[in-house]
Amino acid sequence: MTQARILIVEDEIIIANDIEYKLINFGYSVIGIESSGEKAVQKALEDQPDLIMMDINLKGELNGIEAAEQINKHLNIPIIFLTSYSDQKTVEAVKHAGGTFSYLLKPIREREFHITIEMILYRHYTEKKIKDNEKMLQTILNSMSASILIITPDGKIQICNPMTSQMLGYDRYDLELESIEKIIELKDMPSVNSWIRYLLKKEVIRNVERIYIKNDGYRIPVLFSSSIVKNEDGSPKHIICVAQDITDRKLYEDQLIRSQKYAQSLINSSIDMIVATDKDGNITEFNTAAQLKFQYHMEEIIGKSISNLFLPIEGSIDIFNESIKRSSYSAQSVNLCKDGTEFKSALSFSILVDSEGEISGLVGVIRDITEQKMLEQRQVVLINELREANDELQKSQEQLVQSEKMASLGQLVAGVAHEINTPIGVALTSASRMVTITQNIKAAIVNKTMKKSEFEKYLADTEIGNDLIIRNLKRTADLIKSFKMVSADQTSQEIRKFNIKAYLADIVMSLKPKLKQTTHEIEIECPETLELDSNPGAIAQIITNLIMNSLLHAFNEGVRGKINLSCKKRGDYIILQYSDNGNGIPEEHLKKIFDPFFTTKRGTGGTGLGLNIVYNIVTQTLKGSVKCESKIGHGTTFIFELPIKSEK
Q: Considering 96, 224, 461, 508, which has the largest number of Cβ atoms within 10 A of its Cβ?
């Protein structure tokens, strides 16, 4: 304990000096001597001494007891009263002053003086320590997230922390002296007394599930612990109970159970065979599909080695050992059924790891690929047939593409080569793709890198590819017959002078049968007297292709669209502008719209040659230029610059 700082309040200076002398000899520090109650209060508030030696009878308005009362309103300072009287009235007045106090009779005997000071300082220190501990304990109780109860030996609630009130919806004082049965279900105990007797026998009960009952009757699951605090004679003093709300945990457990049931339902409803093992390779899970295919009932196969299901593969590789070694393993294998029959499968196994990172077993998917193998053989035959057909048509196809780039629309319409090229291209692309993905999947199997998702994608791609090959080969076979009959002669077109506005009107009129199926409007804005000395058939082909292109691409079903044709003279050229107010063309497509076979409507009427034909006619037949401007949602505009007089 550090050196105590003491304030002396005494109006007799001789007595005050004597007290100061004694205190210094005892080893204490005297911070001052005051002669009145008013000055004593002021000094105490300013310097906050550890102890005050206070004479009861002081000069001034405040006596010692009154001064002590004012000091105790603000500070908790122990006070030793000095008096010449020891009557009961004086003692009662001293008690009324409050705080930690004692009193000494004058004249002061030195030994009694020292002992009294030490005792009151120790008592004050002890009381302060107890209050600090109580405050700390109360803070701990108030801050805990668990419910804390202190219960009397007869089951009455003595103290509960704020969390208890919060959990149960009671004011904390409403629960004091209530039986614990008011807020908790003891379940297996018929009464509070039974529970207390059981607790006395065990002394500590930890983490049992109980039910808290809120003031509205709502039930809260809690994890409940309780222990006995005993008196020195071994009798119970009180019971401390701690309860933790486990509502969230119970919900999680319920969700986990539902999740497990859901997962088990998914496993059993899978068309693939799903098998799991323990760390020794013995089967622990065998779904319905596996039971049906392998012809084993669950009770027959659980606990048996997984090696019973497979023949050794790839140089006697054991699937379980290989999966453990690699962490995951994919391959094709031959499987054995209960009756000895075999089937081919694609399998993919991965290790299972427990919470400590140790391997706990395997889980794998097995898929019957017997039909897939047959399909692959049929695919090879189809590919060979397709290659033969493609060799026969290759030269004609290349000639057709070149002809499409250079010839007029009339020459292209005369032949149907591009109609053949479309299904051939689709079939060839599909066949080539199927060859590629088959090679990739074989490579993955050989390299032991195949994943389940890759194999499932391969099966889906193969099914789509086969369907495309068969449909497009049939279409090609029909077209080849007519293709051989189409004349390869090029038809020359006459150059003549014509009125451009009237001719545009004639083109639009010729398309009336197609246009009348829609609600779209076509507007022509041209000078009445503007004439061209050019190829009218080429102009017709350009406008026809653009209108058909707008009908196919620009307007959504049910939308009333507008197409505008305008022209004006600029020197020796005519500026012909075609625009629609349709969907527009994405910026990334603008650079490719004139490329041959580029289309966003393949399979729904688009061949990808319409705008390529327009480009070839403009640049090669008419010796002009064309550019396209478009923005999504704001339509498309084609601007042509064509010579007014073409070379003959």
A: 224
